[in-house]
Design brief:
The complex is a heterodimer of chains A (189) and B (62). In chain A, 6% of the residues lie in helices and 46% in strands. By secondary structure, chain A is mostly beta strands. Chain A is globular and about 75 Å long. The chains are: A mainly beta (189), B alpha+beta (62). The interface between A and B is medium-sized, with 19 and 19 residues.
Chain lengths: 189, 62
């Protein structure tokens, strides 16, 4: 069935993002590539904000094969192999502890009134489960993507007297296997 | 006497025994967690035995 609104824009833009890092405990189970949180586990604590711009930016590799034809002439065929599925997602101004942790290179999530060494962490990314819920104008959820990803800050907004929109780079890790799910829901006609 | 028997029970309730389990079936759910085959989890005794009887997990030890 065709979607009520055919545009892709409305599907990724206007989506909400939630992220649960590996190591978080859900129902006494520690999250990892083989243990994913269910839909209801993505609570407000794990919210990353709303998407205002999303760009699919995969890394591809060319595989070229060339050969001569019996009938004369020469043929070359190039296959593009996707080696990394990645999105660059801009979210509307939304402050999160995860943003602070990655922007200031902290080892652990910031805790109020507790100082931490800045720019200490060598890894400026987090592995975990991301939930992208695509929401129609009337609030209907039209699809939910839950995949195991590496999340990094692609662009840190300037600190100035204006709204800042961080850009997150989301790279699919492919180790989630059968737990990487996309669930479409019917859209109202 | 009643007090003597009550104390160890209270201690046991405070620290439930967790079983080390290996998930056998992808898609097994436990609470709000969805598990893939091969995942190692620690579950309370009753839950571990219930899931084992369904063939969803294997109990590796305590």
């Amino acid at each position: 069935m065709a979607y009520a609104f055919g545009s892709l824009k409305e599907r990724l833009v206007g989506a909400t993002l939630h992220f649960i890092p590996d190591g978080a405990v859900v129902s006494t189970v520690t999250m990892s590539a083989s243990a994913a949180p269910a839909d209801a586990a993505f609570t407000a604590d794990y919210r990353l904000g709303h998407v205002s711009n999303a760009k699919y930016n995969p890394k591809t590799k060319d595989r070229t094969r060339e050969w001569a034809l019996d009938t004369g002439g020469y043929k070359e065929r190039t296959q593009k192999v996707v080696v990394e599925d990645a999105y660059e997602v801009t979210v509307k101004d939304f402050a999160t502890k995860l943003f602070d942790q990655l922007a200031f290179g902290l080892d652990t999530a910031p805790v109020d009134n507790t100082a931490q060494q800045a720019f200490k962490a060598a890894d400026r990314y987090k592995d975990g489960w991301i939930r992208i819920a695509m929401i129609e104008e009337d609030g209907t959820v039209s699809g939910v993507l839950r995949i195991h990803v590496r999340l990094e800050l692609a662009t840190v907004p300037e600190i100035k007297n204006e709204d800042g929109s961080p850009v997150w780079r989301i790279v699919h890790l492919a180790d989630g296997g059968a737990l990487d799910l996309y669930t479409p829901y019917p859209t109202p006609a | 006497m009643a007090k003597d028997t009550a104390t160890p029970e209270a201690a046991a309730a405070a620290e439930p025994i967790l079983f080390n389990c290996t998930v056998l079936v992808t898609g097994t759910t436990y609470g709000l967690a969805e598990l893939a085959a091969g995942a190692k989890v620690r579950l309370p005794e009753a839950d571990a035995k219930a899931l084992e009887s369904l063939g969803k997990v294997r109990i590796d030890g305590v």
